[in-house]
Specification:
Length: about 375
């Protein structure tokens, strides 16, 4: 608040100075319009006194008008800020673009009329203002058509979808794009999956996800910093990889929302799917009707099927929660709990699978040592 008050005081003083100087110039201007009438009426040799008097009077008038002008300027500024805050960013950008186009057209059209007598000075000004407003109004009305040129799903993707339809004769959804979550970018497995060709369509990375990655990469915590930098490196590699379509989308579906809420809203607006490995985001997306591709679920689905009674070799590396249990892991990270395997810690032993438990965290295999 202190900084704001200082800025307001400085602004007030600056406005007063401007009105003081402007009023003085107005007094001098009036003196020149009056010519020598006032000095002649007051007597010869009073030109300098009249000049100073009128300049001072104009400056004093400016100081008197300055407070009223400051209040009016603040009201106008506050109203403009309120209107700009309520106006969507897309409308502002499109309106500014339309106004610029309208002004350029007006300048080109009014050049031949600038030499006309009487109206040659005023016609270009009025026509330019009219064309600027008309361009802004038309652009805002046609914003959907204009924004289609810069939408998250580019026209090249739509043409590719249309070509694919014509070739295959089957219906395909044009919204074959997927929105990437921050966690799945940091995880890095998405790069290998895309290289394998199992994911098609455009991969959308919103700017608010990039900003979150940058915040993580700039963290003072070394672990978070390394994870953020890894995510940025993964995105960089995906952009350079031929065959992977990455689209950076500069959009903010809602101010004040967290990243997950923005992802859900963006995916719902685009009719796209979210690629993530966040369990909570997956559940919330299911409740809101947004389709999710979970990398962890894909990894679990690709793990080899193990049935009770199968035999395998596992290295017991530590003891389990229950008395006498030992714990080992397969090459894909699947945990194997060996009943009575504690005495084999540090050894490779043959085991027989007794049961398989599928949990939200992954798959667990329960086994017992083979009979010697």
């Amino acid at each position: 608040m202190g900084g704001m008050e200082v800025r307001n005081r400085v602004l007030d003083r600056l406005i007063r100075l401007i009105f003081l100087v402007g009023g003085s110039f107005l007094g001098v201007f009036m003196y020149r319009i009056m010519g020598g009438v006032a000095p002649a009426a007051l007597g010869t040799g009073n030109e300098a006194a009249v000049f100073v008097l009128m300049a001072s009077g104009g400056g004093l008038l400016g100081l008197l008008v300055a407070p009223l002008a400051t209040q009016g300027l603040r009201r106008i500024t506050s109203k403009m800020e309120s209107n700009l805050h309520r106006t969507p960013t897309q409308d502002l950008v499109v309106g500014a673009f339309g106004a610029i186009v309208g002004l350029l057209i007006a300048v080109l059209l009014t050049l031949p009329f600038s030499q006309l007598p009487y109206i040659g000075v005023y016609l270009p000004i009025g026509f330019t203002l009219f064309m600027g407003y008309l361009g802004m109004h038309v652009a805002v009305k046609k914003r959907e058509d204009l924004l289609n040129l810069f939408m998250a799903v580019p026209r090249s993707v739509e043409r590719a979808v249309s070509t694919s339809r014509e070739r295959s004769g089957r219906h395909q959804s044009p919204s074959s794009c997927k929105v990437l979550d921050t966690s799945v970018i940091i995880d890095g497995r998405i790069l290998d999956i895309c290289k394998s060709g199992f994911i098609e369509g455009t991969l959308i990375v919103p700017t608010f996800v990039l900003e979150e990655l940058q915040r993580i990469a700039d963290s003072s915590d070394p672990l978070k910093r390394n994870r953020g930098r890894r995510g940025l490196d993964v995105l960089n590699s995906m952009q350079k990889e031929e065959g992977i379509q990455i689209q950076i989308v500069d959009t903010d579906p809602g101010e004040g929302l967290d990243v997950d809420s923005k992802l859900l809203r963006l995916a719902a607006d685009l009719g796209a799917k979210i690629i993530t490995n966040d369990f909570n985001l997956n559940k919330v997306a299911e409740l809101r009707g947004v389709k999710v591709l979970n990398i962890n679920e894909l990894a679990n689905a690709l793990k080899p099927v193990v049935l009770p009674g199968e035999e395998m070799t596992v290295r017991v590396i530590r003891d389990g929660k229950e008395v006498g249990q030992g714990v080992g892991y397969l090459d894909d990270g699947t945990m194997i709990v060996v009943d009575g395997g504690r005495r084999f810690i540090g050894e490779d032993i043959g085991v027989t699978v007794t049961s398989v438990l599928q949990t939200s965290a992954g798959r667990m295999i329960f086994a017992k040592p083979k009979a010697m």
